[in-house]
Structures are given as structure tokens and as C-alpha cells.
């Protein structure tokens, strides 16, 4: 048993030092012998045990005595710990690759590959993203949500659908949005955009978006791109928004006019209510096929959700 | 100031390195450490005149020839040999034994006497002689405490036509030195030749080959502060002359035709091919270094350490020292085993715990271990640069191991 642990540990250490490589080779020989029910003739296990005891004895005689007495059972325990931790490590790597978090999709907690939790955050540092503390990933749904009135960019025939809930003022939405655009374009997916304002009462941009889309669904996406890329401190400045509208080729005045319309206000309220039906609790929230991804993820995670592990082959 | 304190600075290996304490080197019976003087001599050869000895005419070659000649001279004087041509440079003791075993004109029925605790190097070559030439290998048993049994020897001598007595002068198993002068006298009386394996003697005590009247004697440079893979075979000149050549080829002949050759006289006859000139020079430097320390100082230091270690070991439960109980009879060697604890484990733990280097196993004396039913031992072998502090640490570590295992 000890040989197996030693082999694994020494193989890893062997990457860095030749003497450990030699020991790893001896350990492997020992493992192979043990597997075929022959004794380990190289004396490898004895050698390692003596070395370990020699190390422990200088720190604690009692520890060395204990280790000497229970060496074999301790080896077993270490073996299971090793197997367990290896399983979790492999699982962590897999989950990190596929979901951006070692602990699974939308799960927080420490992840060595993402020590600052970049991939699991969704509330902005400046709290500029709407978040509810009561959110639960499991409640996120598109069922019963009428997506009919929202801006939609058609994809290929039989295209898979991506639904993006985001806010122009939210840093994380701004981070995720271009990736989603790129993704939808690359794989010909259908993209539905659900705007949800940072502060619910300032739904001015929601109205602008609604009116712009109504006026020209094609140009809307250009405007949307500009809104996500623009200096966010100026988004509440109507003059600035007008400039963006113009830049996207809209009749800014007529969009403005529409945005202030009482009817628009009513529709937008309905839409925001519709968005809330998804039970989303943070932006961005992206629905791809059956999955809801909360917070910005690496591009690969969105791509895997859309196209599977082998997305890069397609 | 004791001798160790005086000379330790000469040994680079004994310097602390990378914040680690230096090794406590108790494996001197295997190889000793080397002083700077030896290392620098080797370096001098490679840097200043890395050329052939004897063969070429240029200045560098002349320099090497002179150095090798001087080395031979120095070793000859060191052993008090009659002439420098009696000194053959070899790679080690083993080669010296093999040279004699391969070149004596053996006859069927020749008896070779060896003790029952010979190093394999002084056993296997004779076994081969027995096999190849129909010689008879006779084992002389030692006393119960591993000291030499003169009576048993006398009986063995008288029992048959002994051609050669081949004995380990000082045992690498237990450090016991045999009464060589008396053995040689008795052997010669019976018309036998005597070969002494002095691998563990020359490094530790004065050996005077002429006073001993020994016929052949071999030792290794690496066990006496010299370079690895160097050794010496001494032989009385008239005997060397009679020996057949051993390894043959370049440098062993004065001339050759397509079907014959003219061998050079000893020692050239036995030094085939290009030699380890740096090693030979280093060996001479080691001899010079030993002479500068003096055997009195070496023996005194070893005795002091062995007495201290033996006393300490005897107090540890389960420890059995191999050989006589009087440490003064065991030179610089303390071979012991601890009942119930694997000797290799002890050695590995000492190494890991306190960077103490000892040897464990059967020390190439398998025959003795097999005959006595002892599995193996730990062997601490001290030398002139070892200190009392080191010995204390060794004992402390061993006591800890005993407590834990
Ligand atoms: C007594 C004795 N004889 C012979 C030898 C062999 O020496 P070498 O290996 O230098 O030939 C040794 C080495 O340990 C020894 O101790």
C-alpha cells in the first residue's frame, strides 16, 4: 500500500528532481511486485519507512513511535485520502474547465484556479449590478416567461437559443456581453436580450432600448453594443444617449419621444415583470440551453454550455 | 587541541554547506574523505601536465614520468620496501589480490590458507584459483571473539602443502589486526608464501614490509585519504620477477614481433595500458599527508573514539558488538547489530536524522555472516578527522532509534 502512495507522490516530485525519479522507479517496481503478489525485493518500502521515521524522530519521538507501530494502517489511510483528494482534484479541474468554478456551475467557495473568484462573482464592487441575496440557482427558469417582446437576433435554422439578462451599468454584464455576442455569432445561435436596469426606478434605458428595437431591430444591436461599451458614468445622461442613438443610425428624436411615451412605460414595466419571472438574482444571467449561468464566466464555459466539451472542434 | 580539530579544515567535505551541518562520516572503512592537498594534486595533473608517462618525449610527458616515479619512490619508502620497483600501482586492493591469484604458477593440490572472515576480495579470487588449478582453499577458523587463533593456524599450516597464506591483515568486519609478523614467520618456516590484504591496515597503522618479511601486500588508496580507484600491490622483487604477466599490452613490453614479445621487468610488466597518473600522484600526496600527521596521532584518535563508542553502545539494550570486547583490539571499526532492528533501517535513520554516514549489511564478508547466522550489522568506522562530538551525536541518535523502534 505504501508503495502506491510513494509511487504517486514521488512521481509528482520526480518532475522536479532526478533522485525522486529514481525512487519513483523503485516504487513502481515495488507496486508491480505487490500487484503480482510477490514481495518487494528492492527494499524500497523499508528504505522509505526508515527515511520517514528518521525525519519524524527528530521532531517527535512519540510521533515516530506511533508511526512505526501503525505504519501499515496509516499507509492505508493516506492511500484513501490520496484517492479521495485525487478524485476531488480531478473533479475540480473538470468543473473549473466546464463551469469556471472548481465547485460547479455558479458555485462560490475557494477555487485554486480562480483564487479571486472572478468566475463566480456577479455583484459589482460598486454594487452596480442588481442582486438579490435570496437567489437560488435552482429556481432560475425560462418556463412561463414570455420572451416575445424582447430584442431577438435570429440564428441559423434550428438554432439553439441564448437568453442574456444584463444591465448596461453592471461591470460583469459588460464583461460577459461581448463574449455572448461573439458566441452567438460564431455558432449561429439565437440571442434574446433582456435588459434589467441597475436601479429599478431608472428604467430610462430600458425604454430607449424598447423603442429603438421597435424602430429598427437590426440597428438595435449596434446600439446595444455601444451601450455596453460606453462610459457607464454617462449612461444616465440623455444627451449622451442621444449621441449613441445617432451613431447607430437612429432617429434619436423619435426614439426619445417614444421612450417618454406613457404606453412605452407600461410595456417596459410588463417586460421587467416578465424578466423577474426567471427568478434571476444577479446580472448577468445567461440561459444557454438548459443551463443558467450567473455572473461572467470565461468564454469557454459559455461555449461548452452551448456546444459541449468539444466546442473548439466545431 | 586534538588532531581532528587541527586537520578538519583540510577536508572540504567536512565544511558546512547550504546551511546544513557537515556529514558525520563514519564510513571510512569503505572510503575515507580527501584532504585539499590530495584534491589539488589531482587537479594539478589535469591542469598542468595531463600527458602520458614514459611514452612521449615532450616536457609534459617528462613531468608526468617524474611525478609517477616520485610517487613510487614515496610509497616504497612509506612501506619500507627494498626498492621502488616492488611497488605496482593498481586500481584497488582487489586488483592486487587478483594479480597474485592469476600470476602465481599454481599446481594441483597447492593449499591456500585464508581466515574465516575474509573480505570477498580476498576470498573469491582464491576460490577461482581452486576451481581453475585444482588448488585447495583451506579456511582457518578464528576464535569465538574473532581474534586470530594461532593454534588453528599452526595446525592448518602443518596439515598440507601450503603454497600461500592469504590473510586480511586488519579485518574490515571488526577491525581486528592479526599478528602478521608471527604468521609470516611460521608460514615461511613451512615454505609458504604470504599475501596480506592490508586494505584496512595501511590507513591506520605503520606497515613495514621488510620488517614483516611479507611476500605480497595490497592496499587501496581510497581508504587512506587517496583518490578513488587507486591501489598498491607490494611484492618482493625476486618474486615479482617470477610471476607471469597479468593484464598485458601497451607499456608492459620493451618490444614485440608479430608472434612474440619481450616483457619489461616489474613493475612495468604489471602496469598495462595508460595509468591513472592523477590518481597515482594523488595517492602519493595522501601518503605524504598521512606521514605529516603521523600514525601515533591517528591511532590515538581512533582508540579514543572506539573506546567512547564501544562504551556507549554497550549501554544500549540489545546492542551486540562484533569482535573482541576490548575496543583497543578493534582499531577504528565498531561493527554491531541491534536485536530486533534491521541494520539497514538503522543506517538510513542515522543518515536522515543527523546526516551520519555508516555502512550496513554484510560488508563483503558474507561468508562469515552466513557461517555465524548473523543477518548483518551496522558498521561505524572512524578516522583521524572524526571527533568526540560526532561520536556523541551518533550515540544519542542510536539511543533515540532504540527507544522508538
Ligand atoms: C579488508 C578488505 N579487503 C579488501 C577490500 C577491497 O578493497 P577495494 O574495493 O578497494 O579493492 C576491502 C574494502 O572494503 C577491505 O576492507
From TrEMBL, chain A:
Transit peptide as UniProt keyword: no
Domain of life of the native organism: Bacteria
Transmembrane segments: 76-97
GO molecular function, one term: oxidoreductase activity
Domain DSBA-like thioredoxin, chain residue ranges per copy: 180-303
Keywords noted in UniProt: Membrane, Transmembrane, Transmembrane helix
Name used for this protein in its record: DSBA-like thioredoxin domain-containing protein
Source organism (scientific name): Thermanaerothrix daxensis
From TrEMBL, chain B:
Pfam families noted in UniProt: Aminotran_5
Enzyme class: transferase
Aminotransferase class V domain: residues covered: 24-393
Record-listed E.C. numbers: 2.8.1.7
Gene Ontology MF annotations: cysteine desulfurase activity; pyridoxal phosphate binding
Keyword entries, A-Z: Pyridoxal phosphate, Transferase
Catalysed reactions, as listed in the record: (sulfur carrier)-H + L-cysteine = (sulfur carrier)-SH + L-alanine
GO biological process: cysteine metabolic process
Cofactor: pyridoxal 5'-phosphate
UniProt key word Transferase: yes
Top-level taxon of the source organism: Bacteria
Keyword Oxidoreductase tagged: no
CDD domains in alphabetical order: SufS_like (cd06453)
Family from the record: Belongs to the class-V pyridoxal-phosphate-dependent aminotransferase family. Csd subfamily.
Protein name listed in UniProt: cysteine desulfurase
Organism of provenance: Thermanaerothrix daxensis
Taxonomic lineage of the native organism: Bacteria, Bacillati, Chloroflexota, Anaerolineae, Anaerolineales
Amino acid at each position: 500500500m505504501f508503495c502506491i502512495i510513494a509511487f504517486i507522490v514521488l512521481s509528482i516530485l520526480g518532475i522536479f528532481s532526478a533522485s525522486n525519479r529514481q525512487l519513483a522507479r523503485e516504487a513502481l517496481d515495488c507496486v508491480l511486485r505487490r500487484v503480482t503478489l510477490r514481495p518487494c525485493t528492492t527494499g524500497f518500502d523499508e528504505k522509505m519507512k526508515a527515511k520517514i521515521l528518521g525525519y519524524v524522530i527528530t521532531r517527535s519521538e512519540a510521533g515516530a513511535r506511533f508511526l512505526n507501530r501503525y505504519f501499515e494502517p496509516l499507509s492505508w489511510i493516506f492511500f484513501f485520502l490520496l484517492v479521495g483528494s485525487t478524485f476531488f482534484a480531478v473533479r475540480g479541474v473538470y468543473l473549473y474547465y466546464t463551469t469556471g468554478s472548481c465547485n460547479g456551475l455558479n458555485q462560490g467557495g475557494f477555487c485554486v484556479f480562480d483564487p479571486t473568484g472572478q468566475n463566480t462573482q456577479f455583484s459589482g464592487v460598486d454594487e452596480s449590478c442588481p442582486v438579490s441575496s435570496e437567489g437560488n440557482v435552482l429556481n432560475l427558469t425560462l418556463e412561463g416567461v414570455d420572451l416575445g417582446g424582447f430584442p431577438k437576433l435570429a440564428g441559423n435554422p434550428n438554432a439553439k437559443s441564448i437568453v442574456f439578462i444584463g444591465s448596461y451599468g453592471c461591470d460583469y454584464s459588460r464583461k460577459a456581453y461581448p463574449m455572448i455576442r461573439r458566441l452567438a455569432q460564431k455558432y449561429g445561435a439565437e440571442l434574446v436580450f433582456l435588459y434589467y436596469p441597475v436601479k429599478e426606478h431608472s428604467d430610462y434605458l430600458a425604454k430607449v432600448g424598447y423603442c429603438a428595437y421597435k424602430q429598427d431591430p437590426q440597428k438595435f444591436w449596434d446600439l446595444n453594443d455601444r451601450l455596453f461599451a460606453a462610459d457607464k458614468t454617462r449612461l444616465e445622461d440623455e444627451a449622451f444617449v442621444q449621441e449613441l442613438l445617432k451613431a447607430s443610425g437612429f432617429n434619436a428624436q423619435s426614439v426619445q419621444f417614444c421612450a417618454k411615451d406613457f404606453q412605452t412605460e407600461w410595456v417596459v414595466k410588463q417586460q421587467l415583470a416578465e424578466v423577474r419571472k426567471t427568478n434571476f438574482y444577479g446580472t448577468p444571467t445567461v440561459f444557454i440551453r438548459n443551463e443558467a449561468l450567473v455572473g461572467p464566466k470565461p468564454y469557454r464555459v459559455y461555449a461548452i454550455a452551448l456546444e459541449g466539451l468539444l466546442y473548439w472542434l466545431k | 587541541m586534538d588532531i581532528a580539530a587541527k586537520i578538519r579544515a583540510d577536508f572540504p567535505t567536512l565544511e558546512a554547506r547550504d546551511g546544513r551541518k557537515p556529514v558525520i562520516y563514519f564510513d571510512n572503512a569503505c572510503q575515507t574523505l580527501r584532504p585539499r592537498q590530495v584534491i589539488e594534486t589531482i587537479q594539478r595533473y589535469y591542469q598542468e601536465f595531463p600527458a602520458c608517462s614514459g611514452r612521449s618525449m615532450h616536457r609534459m610527458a617528462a613531468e608526468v614520468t617524474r611525478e609517477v616515479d616520485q610517487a613510487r619512490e614515496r610509497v616504497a619508502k612509506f612501506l619500507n620496501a627494498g626498492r621502488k620497483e616492488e611497488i605496482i600501482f593498481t586500481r584497488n586492493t582487489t586488483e592486487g589480490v587478483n594479480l597474485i591469484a592469476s600470476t602465481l604458477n599454481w599446481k594441483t593440490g597447492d593449499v591456500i590458507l585464508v581466515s574465516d572472515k575474509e573480505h570477498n576480495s580476498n576470498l573469491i579470487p582464491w576460490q577461482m584459483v581452486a576451481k581453475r588449478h585444482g588448488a585447495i582453499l583451506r579456511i582457518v577458523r578464528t576464535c569465538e571473539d574473532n581474534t586470530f587463533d594461532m593454534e588453528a593456524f599452526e595446525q592448518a599450516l602443518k596439515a598440507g602443502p601450503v603454497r600461500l597464506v592469504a590473510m586480511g591483515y586488519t579485518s574490515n568486519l571488526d577491525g581486528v589486526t592479526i599478528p602478521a609478523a608471527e604468521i609470516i614467520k611460521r608460514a615461511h618456516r613451512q615454505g609458504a608464501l604470504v599475501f596480506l590484504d592490508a586494505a584496512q591496515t595501511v590507513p591506520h597503522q605503520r606497515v613495514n614490509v621488510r620488517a614483516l618479511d611479507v611476500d605480497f601486500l595490497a592496499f587501496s588508496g581510497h581508504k587512506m585519504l587517496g583518490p578513488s580507484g587507486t591501489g598498491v600491490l607490494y611484492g618482493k622483487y625476486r618474486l615479482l620477477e617470477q610471476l607471469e604477466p597479468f593484464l598485458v599490452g601497451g607499456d608492459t613490453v620493451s618490444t614485440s614481433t608479430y608472434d612474440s614479445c619481450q616483457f619489461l621487468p616489474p613493475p612495468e610488466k604489471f602496469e598495462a595500458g595508460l595509468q591513472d597518473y592523477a590518481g597515482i600522484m594523488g595517492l602519493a600526496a595522501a601518503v605524504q599527508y598521512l606521514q605529516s600527521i603521523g600514525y601515533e596521532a591517528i591511532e590515538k584518535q581512533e582508540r579514543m573514539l572506539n573506546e567512547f563508542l564501544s562504551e556507549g553502545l554497550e549501554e544500549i539494550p540489545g546492542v551486540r558488538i562484533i569482535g573482541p570486547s576490548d575496543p583497543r583490539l578493534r582499531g577504528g571499526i565498531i561493527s554491531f547489530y541491534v536485536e530486533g532492528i534491521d541494520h539497514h533501517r538503522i543506517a538510513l535513520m542515522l543518515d536522515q536524522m543527523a546526516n551520519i554516514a555508516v555502512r550496513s549489511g554484510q560488508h563483503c564478508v558474507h561468508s562469515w555472516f552466513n557461517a555465524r547466522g548473523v543477518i548483518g550489522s551496522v558498521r561505524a568506522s572512524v578516522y583521524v578527522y572524526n571527533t568526540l562530538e560526532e561520536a556523541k551525536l551518533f550515540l544519542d541518535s542510536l539511543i533515540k532509534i532504540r527507544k522508538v523502534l
